What does this fold into?
Amino acid sequence: MPLDYRRFNGPEDSIPYKRFTKDFVKSYDELFKELLDDKGVRKDGRALSEARSMCMFFARADMVSQAKGSAYVELRKTKVVCSVFDPREIPHQNEFSELGQIFCEVKFAPFSCPRRRRPHAPDAEEKALSVALRKALEPSVCRHMFPNYQVDVFIYILENDGACLSAAINAAGLALADAAVPMYDIITSCTVAVIGDKMFVDPTEAEEYLATTNPDTPINHGLLTLSTLSELKQISDFIQIGSMDVLSVTNAMEVLEKECERLVPLVQKVLVGNVLKCFDQRKRLEEEANEREKALNSKMEEWKKLLNAG
Amino acid sequence: MAGLLLSPTEKVFIVHGVQRPKPILGISCCSLTSANAAPQFEGRGGEQLAIGIAKLMQAAYHSSDAFDLKQLCIFEGKQCWKIYVDILILECGGNLCDAVSMAVKAALFNTKLPSVKAALMDGGNIDLQLSDDPYDAKSLDIGTAPLLVTLCKIGDKCVVDPSAEEESCSVISVVVGVTGNPSSYNSEENVSDTAKESKFTTIEMIGSGSVAPKTLKDAMNQGM
It folds into this structure.
């Protein structure tokens, strides 16, 4: 593990202070009990089956001015920025590729994760997320429209509080639409964390962490992410990790499909709002241009009169 | 596989062949002769594939139902064994993930951990002394180690163990990791108490296509 020499890293045999806090020695059951109170309400006040999209979903397109298209998605504390750039020729490639390619790069901000600071160099998780994002986006884009070209999609995760892959997919879908990249359908995505018989829709980081750690007893546990093309009724990507039986996977899939369906109108609203804003802006620009022309014309008339008079 | 030469007619033949309702099953035996799997993996070309496979295997072995990490413990909270699994792909003839998972499971089955003879506590450090006898070693319990099954979607059907030709005909395949049943490694007397039902440890989709929800569910059941 290469050290970051620009920072003070502490002596080699030092132990993180978090080892000595009370939280560190908590058992699996204690952590699990913390997630839910007696009424089955989660820590942040949501019901088990309530996604953050219902109470706090903020998204907008056209966020980064340098990019061709961009979007910002916020699920409470999970915050993701996505920018899409113009198609360019695929670098270092000899063969002609009939289908255009999508290049994805996911990057965590150094301060984004609660458990550790992110390194500068892309680590394994970032690479895995990039690959997963590319796989999810590929079916939704009309890639035959730009052969031998690639579209760059960059995701920057400002804060990670769980479900960052689905937030990234949602943001990338918005940004691609904003960049006017031809697409077959709106892509939406959702995550579910399963612990025992409980299903945490749109999990927070703590829930996600517990779902991927090993329980003391062999119960179902795992993390599922699904992305759908709702109009075409297709699943563009499905990822599961953990250990689950068939029934629990199928149940979780149904929940995920419904949740993805619910996101579609929200995404549509953002896109329509963006288009309206663009029209407004264009109208305003045209009006301003007209005014300028009028002013110039009147100036010309004045000067002409002066010249004629002189 | 990009290096494969297959005309559209041949692809149509395979696609139609699959649609006939007959079970296409089998385990491929591959002889590892060539050191170059395919020209497109030259240089850094295979990096993406390698990352994908490594990630898939990691996800499959992540859960304790699949592989219990407690076996690797020497002193709780102090020392443990760390196992590195290096996978070298010599030739690609389709169905790469399945072959890799089988190889990994076989290699883990063959892995021997040397037993610890003595330990010296020196302040905070632990000095371990390992047994000199190469036969004084314990093997790992890999009864529940997962195997990956690739289901290649061709037409409306899913094909198990696709060849490279079949893979080039499909745009998407579903990979499921299924835990093994430890009872198949034990003798008959304690089958009943160790018999566990199989579970999914990982599911992932490979390829650039998409599937209908029903097909995915069918494929998952078929893989199980």
